[in-house]
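Write out the 3D structure for:
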Amino acid sequence: MLPIDGARIRASFINASQRERAAVTLPADFATLQWDAFDVLGWRDPKLPKVGYVVIETEGGLVGVVLRQAEGRIRTRPQCSWCEDVTLPNDVVFYTAKRSGAAGRNGDTVGILACAGFECSRNVRRLPPVAYLGFDVEAARLHRIEALREHVAGFVQAVREGS
C-alpha cells in the first residue's frame, strides 16, 4: 500500500455514517506504519474492542469497511477466509459488516471469518513450507499476497453491492 493520511482513511468507509467515520480511532502506530508491508490495512479499535476496520486500495480508489466481532465462540479452529493460512499463529473470529446504502440501514449484513487482529498481510508474506522438490516458495508467497487482495476486494464488493 502507499501511505495514506487519516482523513482519506476516514472518508473511505462505505458502510459507516458521517458520525461513525469521524469517531474512527486510527491504529496507535499509524505515524510509523511501514506501508509497503500491507496489502490490506486492518486494525481493532482500542476504544471499542469488538470493532475493527479494514481498508484496501481498489481500482476505484481507497475503500474501507467497518466490522463488528460477532458474539459467541467458534468451537473449532477455523481458517481465515482472507489469508487462508492453515498454520495461523493468531486467532480467527467471525466478523459482520453492515452493507452499504439502504440495505445496511435495513440491517442487512455480510459475515467473514478473519484473523482477529487483521494479521493477514503479515501471514501471507511468510514463506510457505517446501511442498515438493522444486517448489518455488517465492512464487507461492506472491500468489498468496495476490489471493489476499482478491479475497478482501471480493468481501468489500459484497458489502458495497449487497451480493
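Strands lie at 41-44, 51-58, 61-69, 92-98, 109-115.
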